[in-house]
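Q: Structure for this?
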Amino acid sequence: MSELTRRSFLAGSGGLGVLTLAGIPGVAGVWPGTGAALTSVDSPDRTFIRNIPFIDSHDRLERVYGAGLDGRFRQDLSLLTPQTLITPNERFFIRTRCPDLIDLSVPWTIRITGRIAQEKELILDNLLPMAEPMGVHLLECSGSGRGGLISAARFTGIPFEKVLGQVEPSDDEQWIMISGFDQHSDFNPDYDERGCSWIFTREQLTSAGAFLAITMNGKPLSRDHGFPVRLVVPRWYGCCCPKWVNAIRYVRDSAASTNHMRTFAGRTHQDGIPDRARDFKPATIGLSAMAIRVEQWSENGESLHRVVGIIWGGARTTDKLVIRFNRDGDYVPVEDYTHETNRTWSLWSHWWRPPKPGRYEIRLQVDDDSIIKPRLDRGSYRRRIDIS
Ligand SMILES: Nc1nc2c(c(=O)[nH]1)N[C@H]1C(S)=C(S)[C@@H](COP(=O)(O)O)O[C@H]1N2
Ligand SMILES: [Mo]
C-alpha cells in the first residue's frame, strides 16, 4: 500500500476500532444467543472426561493447504466456545487463495460499466472514509457441509447502497453484476469455477444490507480473504461474495447467468441451472444446524454425553430446534439454546444418555414447516459417531 493509501485506509477505519470495543454486547465475553449455559454445568457432580471425535470429520482442519483456486483453510468447529464465536482472522475459513497475478502495488480501483452515461473508475482510497461498522456476520461456503468452510467475523465496510449512489444507471439496466479479480497463473481453462461474479437486483443488495468489506475484526482483510476489498451479502452463501472486487457492471433483465452462478446453482438450491440471472432465486442460507462435538462426562461413576452444536442461517429465529439420535428414533427438543440472530451462529447443547454402545447418527431439524431449511430437510449436516 502506498503511504497515502495507508493513511486514508486508517482514516476510514481508525475510529471504528474503538467502537468495536466499546460496550457492544458480546465483545467482553458471550455473544448474545450463544447458549451461555455452556460455560457452567448445572450439576456439580458432573465431570468432563473427553471429546469423542465424529467418524465423518474432515481430515484437513486448521491449516492452509493448496494454492490458488484450490487453496483452503477449514475451521475445526469442534473447538467453538461461547468466547470464540467470532473467528480470529488467521482461523477464518479460506476458499480460494489470493490469485498470484494480482497487483497490489497500484491504487485499487473498481470499474463501473454498463450503458450508463459515463463509465467510471472508482478509486478505493476515495471510498474508504465511507466505511462504517457492519457488525458480526457469518460466511458459509455452499460447498462446506461438515468441512469447516464456515466462520464469523466483525466487519467494517461501505454499504453497497452508497457505492451505487455514485452512478445513475439507465432504466433498462437494473441488474448488477459484481466481480472479483481471478487471474491465477496456474489457471486451467477447463476449470469451470474461475471468475467469481454474481448478478443481483439492487433491491436484493439493499434489503440484504450488502457492503464492501474493508476490515475484519479490526484489521485490514488478509490477502486470502480479499484484500483490499470484498463483497459481503449478509445471509447469502459465500459464493455470492466476490473477493478482490474490481468490477461492477449494470446489466439488463435478460442477462445470462455467469459461469460462476451456474457452477453454484445446485449448491444454492436453484431449480436446475437457469440460463438467465433473473431466474436465480436469492442464494440465501436456509436455516441450518449441526452438531460440532460430543463430550463425554461422568456423573457418580456413570457416563453421560453432551452434544454441542451450532444453529445459523435462516430469515427469522426459531425456538423449535429438535434433535434425533438415529434414523428410527424420535426428534426431541434441543434442551439448551437461545436463537437470537440469523446473522451469525449460536451455540446449543443437549445432554444425552446413549441407550447402548454403537454407531449413532445425530441429525437436527426445526419443527416448523413455515421455515425454509432445504439442508435440514435433506440431512446435509448429519454427523455420525461411535459410542463405545
Ligand atoms: N474473486 C473470488 N472471490 C471469491 C471466490 C473466488 O474463487 N474468487 N470464491 C467465493 C466463494 S465460493 C466463497 S465460499 C467465499 C469464501 O470467502 P473466504 O475465503 O474469505 O472465506 O469467497 C467467494 N469469493
Ligand atoms: Mo463457496
